[in-house]
Amino acid sequence: MLGWALVFFVLAIIAGAFGFGGIAASASGIAQILFVIFLILLVVSLLARALRGKPPL
Fold first, then answer.
1. What is the pTM of this model?
2. CB 3.0–4.6 Å: which of 19, 45, 48, 52 could bond 2 by disulfide?
3. Band of the pLDDT at 19, cuts 50, 70, 90?
4. How many CB atoms neighbour CB 21 within 10 A?
């Protein structure tokens, strides 16, 4: 699941580079959505890892 979180993070960075630079207005909204999804997946994967008894990272 951490792998998927990293994929969403990379997509958010790419979309952010296009959207926040003024190239496409809709890419900014996509970047924000992907960033939130990344944060949610990161928290879920860290909680799942902690519940399995492994140390974080």
1. 0.51
2. 45
3. low
4. 10
